[in-house]
Amino acid sequence: MASNTATMGNLPSGVGICTTIPDILYLPELIFGGLVWILVACTLVVPANPQGWVMFVSVFCFVMTFIWMVVFACGGHHNKGSWAAADFAYHGIAAFFYLSASVALAKVTLDISDKKSQNYKLDVSAVVFSYVATFLYFVHTILSAIRWKSF
């Protein structure tokens, strides 16, 4: 743990993103975001508007997090403070998007009349994973802010 806190002023590259805080959260964000994407895609889309927003958020955050992880793994940030600020901003926006999508998905799920249907069970799972993804992005935002301030 001491090595993780000592290097908070540096942006990792290569395998370092799998061993440093907050970059170790990339993989769980991808896993839970992907699960939300898959579960919402498997359900009956009624009503379409909130479910469409959830799909947009899950796909957007999955793709952007993957690209962000690749940029960090390849060292494309060149250890500049502006990338630390961008990391904080991206994860803050992603946390806000996921929170809004989670609330909308929870509301749609509560409005399902047949609580024993397969769609209801898939939606409940998607809501749980969506809130987990929200929490992961929020924690990543806080830790990225700490790293950004240490530059």
The counted number of beta strands is 0
Oligomeric composition of the shown chains = single chain
Helical residue percent band = over 70%
> What is the radius of gyration?
17 Å
Which segments are poorly predicted (pLDDT under 50) over 5 or more consecutive residues?
Answer: none
Count, helices: 5
Beta percentage is under 5%
State the end-to-end CA separation.
19 Å
SSE string: HHHHH
Write down the overall mean pLDDT.
87
User: Describe the biggest sheet?
Assistant: none
Overall shape: it is elongated
Structural class: mainly alpha
Index terms:
0% strand; mainly alpha; elongated
Protein model, in words:
The chain has 151 residues and is mainly alpha-helical. Helix content is 74%, strand content 0%. It has five helices and no strands. The protein has helices at residues 2-6, 26-42, 48-74, 81-110, 118-149. Helix 2 (26-42) runs antiparallel to helix 5 (118-149) and helix 4 (81-110) packs antiparallel against helix 5. The longest helix is centred in the C-terminal third of the chain and has 32 residues, at 118-149. The radius of gyration is 17 Å and the shape is elongated. The protein starts with a helix and ends with a helix. The mean pLDDT is 87.
